[in-house]
Structure formats: structure tokens, C-alpha cells
Amino acid sequence: xxxxxVAFLVSMVGILLLAGCDGDIDDTIPCPEDLRLCPDGSYVVxxxxxxxxxxxxxxxxxxxxxxxxxxxCPDGSYVVxxxxxxxxxxxxxxxxxxxxxxxxxxxCPDGSxxxxxxxxxxxxxxxxxxxxxxxxxxxxxxCPDGSxxxxxxxxxxxxxxxxx
Length: 164
Prior knowledge:
Elements: H1 2-19, E1 35-37, E2 43-47, E3 52-53, E4 70-72, E5 78-82, E6 87-88, E7 105-107, E8 113-117, E9 122-123, E10 140-142, E11 148-152, E12 157-158
Antiparallel strand pairs: 1-2, 2-3, 4-5, 5-6, 7-8, 8-9, 10-11, 11-12
């Protein structure tokens, strides 16, 4: 009788175990918990079963095909349209972001000062340093006779008033 009771218990445990098993074994492997930074600033995680990153917001699984026209840039080069929005790529030297240079200045041999110029943030040339055109401030000076004179390159000093 004791063996019959043990056999009954073993068979009941087996039935209960089989009843809870539907044949599908969860064999998913946990994915690494690293993140991908999306162009819009959000982050996405890896998704089972293949642990690939989830698509960023606005990304489609379908490949975007853009028109094949081109745009000529001011420097003579050409750019094409780029997915996903099919806008033209920026021309060389064009940036969507504004370049902000350091606010320091350089003193030139003539005592004037020059600032840094975007996009390279190099110092502007000092007056007389090169053969490039010098742009002077657009202010004017009123002369004693009521006429006005403007600044003159390369030193950007005011032109002499009539009669001086």
C-alpha cells in the first residue's frame, strides 16, 4: 500500500508539471543594457530576441529613396538629397549650428585689436598683414564744416576732414 501511495504522488507531481508546460521554453537571452543616442536626443535600448537597438523615433524600417537631383553650392561643388527627410545635404562650409568663437582679442603691431572669426575661429588679420581687403566699421565722423568722413582701410582711421 505504501508503494501505491508513493506511485500515486509521483504521478500527480508529473501531471502537474506537464500541465504547466506548454512546450514553449523561454530561451530568450537577456540583452546588454547599453543605450543608443538618437538624432533627436532621445535614447533607445536593445530589444529581444536579437538584441538589436529599437528604432529611433521617426526611423522607419522601410528604406527612404530620395530624388536624384543635385544642388550646386557656392564653391562649385554639388550635394544630393539625404534620407530620411530628403533635404539637400549642407554645402561645404555651411553648418546648421552657429559657430561661437572665444571672445579673446589679439593686439596688432599698430595698436589695434582683432577678434576671432567663425567658422575656423582664427584671429582676423591685422591691418596691413596681408593683401586681403580690410572691412572697417561703418561709422562716420562729422567734420567742423558739417560734412562727414568715413573710416579708410587698411588702418580704419577716419579720413581727414576737408581743409585738414
